[in-house]
Prior knowledge:
By secondary structure, the protein is α/β, with parallel strands linked by helices. It has one domain (2-7, 38-87, 116-297): UDP-N-acetylmuramoyl-L-alanine:D-glutamate ligase (3-Layer(aba) Sandwich), CATH 3.40.1190.20. Helix content is 32%, strand content 23%. The strands form 2 sheets. It has a 9-stranded mixed β-sheet, with helices on both faces. It has a 4-stranded mixed β-sheet with strand order 3-2-6-7. Residues 159, 178, 214-217, 219-220, 233-234, 236, 238, 241, 244-245, 248, 270, 273-274, 277 line the site of adenosine-5'-diphosphate (ADP). ATP binds at residues 178, 214-219, 245-246.
Amino acid sequence: TVLVVGSVNADLTVRAPSIPAPGETVLGEDARVSPGGKGANQAVAAARAGASVALCGAVGRDPFREPALSGLTRAGVDLSGLHHLDAPTGLALITVAASGENAITVASGANARVTPAHLPADLRGFTHLLLQGELSPEVTREAARRAHAAGLTVLHNAAPARTPDPDLLAHTHHLLVNEHELAAFASAFASGGEDVAGQARDLLAGGPQAVTVTLGAQGSLTVTGDSAYRLPAFPVTPVDTTGAGDTFCGVLTAWLAQGHPLPDALHAAGVAAALACTRPGAQDAMPSREELAAALAR
Length: 298
Ligand code: ADP
């Protein structure tokens, strides 16, 4: 079973002609409420890919709780480790301009109230831990430390970009970053690497056995102690790339947890992430196991 310790949000999205300037009001289209948060998104991607998945995190007791959990429930994610706190459910306020640009304000709410005391007392039964950067650094670090000690494989998607935590890196087996997040690591650790591969390779010294850099339409690059895997993107016509990175992380973890070798898991993750780009939304756009299998057989 894959354990995801991460954020759960409701995304409130409005399409408008433009993003309002300070003091300005713009009239947008109908608001759409959809499930989001990197933790929930990655848990849903992993569950759709066929893994057994449990999520540890927190929501409030307010009306946004139900839409925030709808995708997790539908995907069959075990929510026995989800906490219901007296704080608002995490909410992302998203304005999408006609130009395609967006502006996002995240109210972390219950996500910011998760403490190490909320982590599962017993990690037996879990083989993989998947982390992101939307809970407090203390919780994420403690989850990695305990899982590492308990023999789980720890995957960490260091998103959104922030100053890297060396202690967390030391307890991470597989680090996942996009180019922007890689740059944050490279500058923090004074990496001498000249290119993406060199910078990724430098991070192996900090603890991870593998570092994957997702490169958008250029696919992904993974380095390990003795190998490198450069995978081109699966060709699609992208409609909305929201959730591509989350799909990649969730599906990679699901495939590794199901016993597939790393190159096969990376390939499946890339194809699934590309499929998620062909439809609008985050969780709604993630492929089912059958759809992914059909694309892999092509
Ligand atoms: P993030 O969304 O975290 O910034 P990326 O943009 O790097 O992450 O995308 C994650 C993965 O999604 C990529 O490694 C790739 O496999 C897939 N992907 C993203 N954009 C495209 C695209 N235009 N065509 C095909 N695959 C894509």
